[in-house]
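Hi P.,

Sorry for the delay on this. The queue was packed all week, but I finally got your sequence through. Input first:
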Amino acid sequence: MKDVVAVFLRTNPDFLKEFPDLLETLNLSHSTGAASSLIERQVKQLRSHNQELNRQLNRLMHVAAENEQLMSRLHQFTLELLSISEPAAFFSHLKERLKEDFNADIVKVFLFDGDIAAMAGSQVSWLARDDDKTRMFQPQLSQNLTVCGRMNENKLAVLFDAKAQWVKSSAVIPIGAGGNDGMLAIGSSDATRFYPGMGTLFVDLLADVIASSLAQVQPEEQRRTA
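Then the structure:
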């Protein structure tokens, strides 16, 4: 095999000029003493740097591909939700898809509008805006801040009731401007599933879709006085 390669290179002396990147992966020895050693070290460093740049590029390409898939899923998810006008069916589909897409164990929706909560039935929970339980989350709601990671026991009890003991990480997403409409809570038994600093673009955009849908199902008298 080596003889075949050697013959090929002899008959194609310009081959490496056409493909200079191959030189970065070849080990070439020199016989010029200290100068040779210095050149080889420089070449080794350049090759190592090039490999690291390639790894970084591959990581960026991987992230870009994941983001493209994520936005495609969000687009499809949005179309599915917007086609559902009945609140109970809307939130049922929302919760099932979130469990699938986020590998979550539990999804809870809390609404501050009692009338809409009643229309959605068992798919949502109603909380009064001035309830002590709501006040626990007011700082993040007022800032439209999605919080991911581990919650304290009191907050977990509010969000997940009897299942709180199984929730090791969670995400809480405000719904509506300043969390005016409610909040979405996603819990997982995996302590590493949700963590501080993770990207929340998907759920933040989804919260906008939920808020928009809620605006459409408000009782007519509320829409007139809003």
